Amino acid sequence: MASEVSRIMKEIKELKIQGARRVAAASAKALAISVKKSKARDLDSFFKEIEGTGSKLISLRSTEPMVRNTIRYFVARIEKARTVEDGKRIAEETLKRYDKEFTESFVKITKYGSDLIWDGQTVLTHCHSTTVNSILVHAHKHKKIKVICTETRPKYQGHLTAKQLSNSGVDVTMIVDSAVKHVMKSVDLVMVGADSVTAEGALYNKIGTAGIATIAHDMRVPFYSATQIYKFDPITKLGKMTEIEMRPAKEVLPKPMKGVKIINPAFDITDPLYIRAFITEAGIIPPQSVGNAADEYIRI
Ligand code: RUB
């Protein structure tokens, strides 16, 4: 395997590349590199190689349907090749097309999400979502907004959120995750990203999201998730659940504590009942319509 591909895989695993969009984009890049560098002499071994790299990329973060959808997007096109050289050309073209579609949907979501925030409002966010950050920076350019972000235990992705927002001039305040209830009275809306969206409109996002949604619901604060439709998980149409990635205990406690067990789920599930809408490239979609939008939009 090319060293650049191994490096990308390692960075995904260690969360140096984190967040569903960045993980999917990096996986697309890694697959395209491995196709380009393939030394396979016949189509059979070429396809096997692609399948192997694709499966490896998918296995790195198990709660990421966007990676699975991305790999399927590539494989479905490359599999039409008649020769290895043809396959390499198709992979290159697919990467260009994928990047273009990826950027276009991101621009749309940024605009739709920003339109939901009114002048003078305070938005609470959790973890680090490139999608939500883009919305908040865009909104800040056109109106006066405040942002409250959680630090996001155990890996503190909220630090990156705070840093990026502050560098862009956004008024940002960071809280510990357990302070969400305390601050909710001064929040006008909650906006988080998404890792997986299911057929019934449930949301998988960073651990802690479901608790925030419950508090927002109790206090009548609208809760939105900004997501590309490619985060829809097709297996949920068949009644299966997206898997929740369990991460190493040392992320919670670097040195083990005698007699103490640790579990470290990376994500949790927010009930559709608590979600006002998903902000997608297809518009602002209520949870019950997400499955239809996915049928319409996902072109694999
Ligand atoms: C990141 C996370 C983000 C979503 C959306 O978790 O939960 O909210 O991935 O991000 P982790 P984006 O840090 O474990 O990857 O909008 O950038 O796709």
Percent of residues in helices comes to 40-55%
Sheet bearing the most strands, described? 7 strands, mixed
> Helix-strand pattern, N to C?
HHHHHEHEHEHEEEHEEEEH
Mean pLDDT: 96
Alpha carbon gyration radius: 20 Å
Structure description:
The protein has helices at 3-13, 20-36, 43-60, 65-78, 84-115, 130-142, 157-167, 180-183, 209-218, 290-297, and strands at residues 122-125, 146-150, 171-175, 189-192, 196-197, 203-206, 223-226, 267-270, 277-280, 283-285. It contains 10 helices and 10 strands. The mean pLDDT is 96. The strands form 2 sheets. It has a 7-stranded mixed β-sheet with strand order 3-2-1-4-7-9-10, sandwiched between helices. The longest helix has 32 residues, at 84-115. With 300 residues, the protein is an alpha/beta fold. Helix 1 (3-13) packs antiparallel against helix 2 and helix 2 (20-36) packs antiparallel against helix 5 (84-115). Residues 15, 18-22, 127, 129-131, 157, 192-195, 205-206, 266 line the site of ribulose-1,5-diphosphate.
Brief write-up:
With 300 residues, the protein is α/β, with parallel strands linked by helices. The protein is 46% helix and 13% strand. 43% of the residues are buried.
Write the layout of secondary structure elements.
Elements: H1 3-13, H2 20-36, H3 43-60, H4 65-78, H5 84-115, E1 122-125, H6 130-142, E2 146-150, H7 157-167, E3 171-175, H8 180-183, E4 189-192, E5 196-197, E6 203-206, H9 209-218, E7 223-226, E8 267-270, E9 277-280, E10 283-285, H10 290-297
Parallel strand pairs: 1-2, 1-4, 2-3, 4-7, 7-9
Antiparallel strand pairs: 5-6, 6-8, 9-10
Helix pairs in contact: 1-2, 2-3, 2-4, 2-5, 3-4, 4-5, 5-6
Ribulose-1,5-diphosphate binds at residues 15, 18-22, 127, 129-131, 157, 192-195, 205-206, 266.
